[in-house]
């Protein structure tokens, strides 16, 4: 992706557009294939499997008679089953009557209720399965921390002496305080009044040694949030921020304090990138955030995550543990998303936080520029969000169809056709209004960035 973003004039746009098509294409294909394959297993024949909307760019027909096509507008997709009027699984009674008995037996609306419900639910479920698998594979690739505070890799900071720590050392104490794992190690470092060299008691080859090492939480950039002030300023993962607004930094906490005290005024950062010293102007922004405890906080931020000096030794988890990590990660995203939506409805969080297609495209391009790993992670995050949103009980979405099926199961008959038409129209209006609002937010962000 990086060579595309380097092209003059249109490079950044092309990079974002290609990354957006990749991310959304994978997520949409998995979602629609979930509908298609479970429908096929349930005896429901698909007439069209479309990636995108609008004019057809290319197509082929398989041996089962399904037309697989790619359309011009890459903002979604659909599966049109036999008996459907369109890709939203609406139908016209006259259209159903015109079908032969054989066609009606393989139509969506002629199938048993449980078969229709499984087919509809399969789309979001497929998205969740994709997310779990991706997060699980990431856990297998990156590994999980070994037991205890056992040292893996140790970074060498610009202008500072390398640490005497070695791979495999087991850290027992920091400044005399016992530590059982890296969480306690970093917590003890955070509680220090002044960031500076720390004394470590380590166990190495059965012997105990006292070592002095630089502060474990340096002003080192681990990740840059897309569309943030840091991204606009040109900060990159691996940057060492030596000073901010003329103040020498000794820890990532020092950087956080300078940003918070800036009041949103422009700062000048001294950044060491490899062997090059850069001066980057940056203007912090007020950002609303949903905290892990569910509260909403507004604070001045630049949008970077801090890296650490000492990485834990990792081990490869079992496949079952990796899948469990995938489920945990997916559930965290769902919980945080639902909490954020609840705060927006309650008025505690601004609707300006909604991202539309343009925003997702920018985030996709920025993620791709930071490496394939970031782009793959984004696919898992977006897949979780798409699966969750499609389960909302809004007509035209999968959750709306499931709600109607629930009514049919209780009442013994589907809702009246007139009610269905009204519900579908209202649902479509709600979705379009939400998309327009999110797109407006995207345009505003583009103009002010």
TrEMBL record:
Belongs to the peptidase M50B family. It comes from the Bacteria. One of its GO terms (cellular component) is membrane. It is an enzyme of class 3 (hydrolase). The chain crosses the membrane at residues 12-30, 125-144, 375-397, 418-440. It is a multi-pass membrane protein. It comes from Halovulum marinum. GO terms for biological process: proteolysis. CDD domains: cpPDZ_EcRseP-like (cd23081), S2P-M50_PDZ_RseP-like (cd06163). Keywords: Hydrolase, Membrane, Metal-binding, Metalloprotease, Protease, Transmembrane, Transmembrane helix, Zinc. GO terms for molecular function: metal ion binding; metalloendopeptidase activity. Its cofactor is Zn(2+). This is Zinc metalloprotease. Gene3D superfamilies: 2.30.42.10. The keyword Ribosomal protein does not apply. InterPro entries: PDZ, PDZ_6, PDZ_sf, Pept_M50_Zn, Peptidase_M50.
């Amino acid at each position: 992706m990086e060579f595309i973003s380097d092209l003059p004039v249109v490079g950044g746009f092309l990079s974002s557009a290609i990354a957006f098509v990749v991310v959304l294409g994978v997520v949409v294909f998995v979602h629609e294939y979930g509908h298609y394959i479970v429908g096929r297993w349930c005896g429901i024949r698909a007439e069209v499997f479309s990636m995108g909307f609008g004019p057809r760019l290319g197509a082929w027909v398989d041996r089962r008679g399904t037309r697989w096509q790619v359309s011009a507008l890459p903002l979604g997709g659909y599966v049109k089953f036999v008996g459907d009027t369109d890709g939203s699984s609406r139908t016209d009674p006259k259209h159903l009557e015109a079908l032969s008995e054989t066609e009606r037996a393989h139509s969506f609306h002629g199938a048993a209720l449980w078969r229709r419900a499984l087919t509809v639910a399969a789309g979001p479920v497929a998205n969740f399965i994709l997310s779990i698998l991706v997060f699980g594979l990431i856990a297998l690739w990156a590994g999980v921390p070994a037991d205890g505070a056992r040292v893996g890799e140790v970074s060498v900071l610009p202008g500072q002496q390398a640490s005497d720590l070695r791979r495999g050392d087991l850290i027992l104490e920091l400044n005399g305080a016992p530590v059982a794992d890296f969480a306690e190690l970093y917590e003890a470092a955070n509680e220090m009044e002044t960031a500076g060299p720390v004394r470590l008691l380590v166990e190495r080859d059965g012997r105990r040694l006292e070592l002095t090492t630089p502060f474990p939480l340096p002003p080192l950039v681990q990740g840059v949030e897309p569309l943030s002030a840091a991204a606009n300023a040109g900060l990159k993962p691996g940057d060492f921020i030596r000073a901010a607004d003329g103040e020498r930094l000794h820890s990532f906490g020092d950087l956080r304090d300078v940003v918070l005290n800036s009041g949103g005024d422009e700062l000048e950062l001294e950044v060491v990138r490899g062997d090059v010293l850069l001066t980057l102007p940056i203007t912090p922004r007020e950002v609303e955030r949903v905290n892990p405890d569910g509260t909403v906080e507004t604070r001045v931020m630049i949008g970077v995550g801090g890296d650490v000096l000492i990485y834990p030794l990792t081990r490869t988890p079992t496949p079952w543990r990796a899948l469990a990590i995938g489920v945990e990660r997916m559930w965290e995203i769902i919980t945080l998303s639902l909490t954020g939506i609840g705060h927006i409805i309650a008025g505690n969080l601004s609707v300006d936080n909604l991202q539309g297609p343009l925003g997702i495209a920018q985030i996709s391009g920025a993620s791709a520029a930071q490496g394939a790993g970031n782009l793959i992670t984004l696919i898992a995050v977006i897949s979780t969000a798409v699966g969750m949103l499609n389960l909302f009980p809004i007509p035209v979405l999968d959750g709306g169809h499931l709600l109607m099926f629930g009514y049919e199961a209780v009442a013994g008959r589907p809702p009246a056709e007139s009610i269905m038409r009204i519900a579908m129209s209202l649902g479509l209006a709600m979705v379009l209004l939400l998309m327009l609002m999110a797109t407006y937010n995207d345009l505003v962000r583009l103009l002010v960035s």
